[in-house]
Design a protein that fits this description.
heterodimer, A: mainly alpha, MetI-like fold, two-stranded antiparallel sheet, about 75% helix, about 0% strand, B: alpha+beta, Rossmann fold, OB fold (Dihydrolipoamide Acetyltransferase, E2P), 2 domains, 6-stranded mixed β-sheet, 5-stranded antiparallel β-sheet, about 35% strand, binds adenosine-5'-triphosphate, binds magnesium ion
């Protein structure tokens, strides 16, 4: 089937609705947010239209810079953990019979239906001293007495990886299923053990998919603001937590908006950089 | 015995038997073609030789050693897949060097071997190209070179030429055969194109329904098909029912055929006569009589359709020996006993 370019304005008709929705529900709010980020804050939770940089200046302090850095590192770590866990898992899943694959995918989808709050509290119970996993270790004899495994960085990471893993698997799954299975078989006939073939055939062949998945999970993890609060200490709070805090509890909309804009810009910058590096690697 | 031996190899998928008690010996240096209709178990058999599929029963031996349980990557074989399975992220040279890299061969050695192989497949200087920029025939050759990089003991190819157009395919058949003879490598090719099998093979193995029907040289398969399936599958043929009369001599449609006898004890048998072995004579002069129904003159060959005993018999002749007949004419059909092959039931 040949695709013809649209001839008249009317041919663009089907695009009007989504374009309108995007304009009303994305461009306009985002524009408002950018505008608000330059407004002047008044005492008592109000703000007046202005064009000042105070909100951005405040953000450039060491404290907020540190939080931004931590958020980025956390999101990158979550993305890497998810892909490292999901890649072999999804590959093994793709080698199972159709029936088993469906059962696994339905299971993963049901994890997706859990809300962030439920995941947070479930993990806080699992990692607690009184009812948590460490009691099992004591039973087995690996520990002398139960310990609290949260709040900690590990707990935040575990919770967020748990939350993002189903997404990661579902994004990788179609690409892995579509990959020619004879590639792996060919590698084996050429003297590669299955594990080596996984690393030097499957991973490089899926390079672009892996890159895209990393970026997706990274962005997903950047937005997380409940799990760091439930499972972490204040030093594990992400920028999203601070934005919520400023917007809702401190009623400082202009500053919250400035932080949100900054976060979006940094994220876009990092994604662009990653794609650029990926493009270079491709050419080499 | 040296070479590859398949001993009662069987493969079942659930209750379905894809390969049934296959018995085959392939001496070193032979070129074998597995030939048969779709779904007869050729690919499954090849994959079992490669270790990509475990036989349900039976054993595979290489030079007297049982390799049935040996994992694929330790079998030292080269395989070309129907999809070719070239690694999309590697260049032509890197694809060919892949097995050498896996073995940890030094860089210079890898480069030397790649150049050697590129020369062998007539693609010198193509090492740095991405595989996606090659034509179908070139990819074919790269896949062959990669499979040969480690000088394997056994070379397996699953319908390697099926994606090529007819002209290129014929050229590649000759090339592949010449390459195999130059290297003296034991080669097993799956195909369902009988021309391809006849062109390349030392031994043609005809399979059907998971069984080997006949394994013999191309000319023997053609001249002396073992059963009706082989006779019908290879080339075109006339299958004629014969009956023994009370003296034991063979009769066709009630006429005795002098010199032709059926296997001891058999009352009936099917014989195969190739169309080019059927000669037309004056009515009453041949073994049986019939009526010409149609003459197809193709220039290079002339096919005469004759109806005899309620059956259609085709005779093929060259323009030089053109039978002077027209549709509706009565003719005799001469069948010398040496061209009648009595088939197993
Ligand atoms: N993994 C499998 N599970 C179940 N049945 C299978 C499997 N692989 C093959 N079969 C069946 O085994 C039979 C033989 O398959 P095979 O691929 O060996 O045929 P083939 O001779 O190579 O046919 P073709 O010429 O079409 O490639 C087929 O009926 C096929 O459906
Ligand atoms: Mg096949």
């Amino acid at each position: 089937m040949k695709r013809e370019p649209p001839q008249s304005i009317a041919d663009y008709g089907p695009l009007f609705f989504p374009a309108g929705m995007l304009l009303i529900f994305f461009v306009v709010p985002f524009g408002t947010m950018i505008a608000v980020s330059f407004f002047q804050r008044q005492e008592g939770g109000f703000y007046t239209p202005a064009f000042v940089f105070t909100n951005y200046e405040r953000f450039l302090s060491a404290f907020f810079g540190g939080v931004l850095g931590f958020s980025l590192i956390l999101a990158v770590t979550v993305a890497i953990c998810c892909v490292v866990l999901a890649l072999p898992f999804t590959y093994l899943l793709s080698t199972l019979s159709r029936r088993l694959q469906v059962i696994w995918l339905v299971g993963l989808l049901s994890v997706l239906s859990l809300s962030e709050v439920i995941i947070g509290f479930a993990w806080s119970t699992l990692l607690s001293r009184t009812a948590g996993l460490s009691n099992l270790l004591v039973k087995v004899g690996l520990l002398d007495q139960p310990v609290a495994l949260f709040p900690s960085f590990g707990a935040v990471l575990t919770g967020m990886v748990y939350q993002a893993l189903p997404y990661t698997v579902l994004v990788l799954y179609p690409a892995i299923v579509r990959l020619d299975p004879t590639l792996m078989e060919a590698a084996r006939t050429l003297g590669s053990s299955p594990i080596r073939a996984f690393f030097n055939v499957l991973v490089p062949a899926l390079r672009n998919t892996i890159m895209a998945t990393l970026i997706m999970v990274f962005i997903f993890a950047l937005g997380s603001y409940l799990l760091p609060q439930i499972l972490g200490r204040p030093q594990h709070w992400t920028l999203s937590v601070l934005i919520t805090d400023q917007a809702i509890y401190q009623s400082n909309m202009p500053f919250a908006a400035a932080m949100a804009v900054f976060l979006v810009l940094v994220t876009l910058g990092l994604v662009a950089l990653t794609l650029l590096i990926g493009r270079k690697g491709e050419k080499a | 015995m040296s070479g590859l031996v398949l001993n009662n190899v069987t493969k079942q998928f659930g209750a379905f038997t894809a390969v049934d008690k296959v018995q085959l010996a392939v001496p070193h240096g032979t070129f074998v073609c597995l030939l048969g209709p779709s779904g007869c178990g050729k690919t499954t058999l090849l994959r079992m030789i490669a270790g990509l599929e475990d036989p349900t029963a039976g054993a595979i031996l290489l030079d007297g050693t049982d390799i049935t349980g040996v994992p694929t990557h330790k079998r030292n074989l080269g395989m070309v897949f129907q999809s070719l399975a070239l690694f999309p992220h590697l260049s032509v040279g890197e694809n060919i060097a892949y097995p050498l890299r896996i073995r940890g061969a030094p860089r210079e050695e890898q480069k030397k071997r790649v150049d050697e192989l590129l020369a062998l497949i007539h693609l010198p200087g193509y090492g740095d190209r991405p595989v996606s920029k090659l034509s179908g025939g070139q990819r074919q050759r790269v896949a062959i070179a990669r499979a040969l990089a480690l000088s394997p003991k056994i070379f397996l190819l699953d319908e390697p030429l099926s994606a090529l157009d007819a002209k290129l395919r014929e050229a590649m058949q000759v090339e592949l055969r010449q390459l195999q003879q130059k290297l003296g490598i034991t080669t097993i090719v799956v195909t369902h194109d009988q021309r391809e099998a006849m062109t390349m093979a030392d031994t043609v193995v005809v399979m059907n329904g998971g069984h080997i029907r006949q394994a013999a040289s191309p000319i023997e398969i053609y001249r002396k098909p073992a059963d009706t399936f082989v006779a019908d599958f290879i080339g075109s043929t006339n299958l004629i029912e014969t009956e023994a009369d009370n003296t034991g001599a063979a009769t066709i449609f009630g006429h005795r055929v002098t010199g032709l006898s059926l296997p001891a004890g058999a009352r009936t048998a099917t014989i195969s006569v190739r169309p080019e072995d059927v000669h037309l004579t004056a009515p009453g002069n041949g073994a049986i009589d019939g009526t010409v129904t149609f003459v197809r003159d193709l220039g290079g060959t002339i096919e005469t359709f004759v109806e005899a005993g309620g059956q259609q018999i085709i005779a093929v002749s060259t323009p030089r020996e053109r039978p002077d007949v027209v549709a509706g004419q009565a003719v005799g059909i001469a069948l010398s006993p040496e061209v009648c092959v009595v088939l197993k039931q």
